[in-house]
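Fold Annotation — chain and its backbone
Next Lines — sequence and tokenised fold

***
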Amino acid sequence: MGSNPTFPTILFMNLFRIDKEAFDKRIHEIDLFRGFLIILVIFDHLMWFINFYLSHNSSQFLNWYWTSELRLVVRQIVLYAFLFTCGISCHLSRNNKRRGFLLFILCLLITVATHIIQLMPIFNNRVIAIDINVLGVVALSILLYCIFEKLDSKNLLLVTGILMVFYFFILLASRTSPDTEYNAFRSILYCSFNPIKEGYVGDYLPLFPYVIALFFGVIFARKFYPAKKSIISKKGNCERSICFLGRHTLFIYIIHEVLFTIIFVILDMIIK
């Protein structure tokens, strides 16, 4: 008689079964795309933590990467693509209002908690606070979409056009002060191509123009995913791991920020 399977074996088999069921049921090309995006985000954040905490040991590559035009361009592409896929998820979701409110509350909790921890003397002015502004932008964008969710695609496109016109006027209004001066109107709504300027923090992200990308994502999904089913055939196990990341983007985004902060703060304490 064979021995009974151990608990780790049972747990692994169940997780594999659940993962396979999710892979089979979900629109895998969206998860795949989102998985690639979160990998790029993690890499970019890793470069920031190394550059900020271990700058005295940074290589030429790290110094080049953080100041390169390539990073600025890729960062904007990733942000727009991320909001675009969030728009696709809005089309697929059954309760966007609930998703938006929960995400907004989560963003507030993380921001408040980390800023309180930042005040503890033990950290000696090291950066602990996590301003996950992209989550706030996603939450507000989803809640704004909820207002127009019941519109048909034609009228939703009209609303998106109005948002684009509004953004155009924001661009004009933002010219009332030099780029190096803090402008409350611009800081809330408008983000120029390079938002890292005097008066802004590195993770600063306003609502516009990224909310427009979410609306376009919804319109795209209504056109190409009316049945909410995959339109590209699955390729099998080679995609599974990246799709897994794509399915759990929110959790991975939050946990990697927390882990990186803990790890690099400890390293900084040891080195200094």
